[in-house]
Amino acid sequence: MVEKRNSARIVTKVKSEVHSIDGMTFSTSADLSSGGIFISTPEPINIGSEVELSLYVPGKEEPFEIKGIVRWMREDENDKKKAGMGIEFIDFSLSDYGIENDLIE
Question: Mapping DSSP to helix (H, G, I), strand (E, B) and coil, where does residue 92 land?
Answer without folding.
Answer: coil
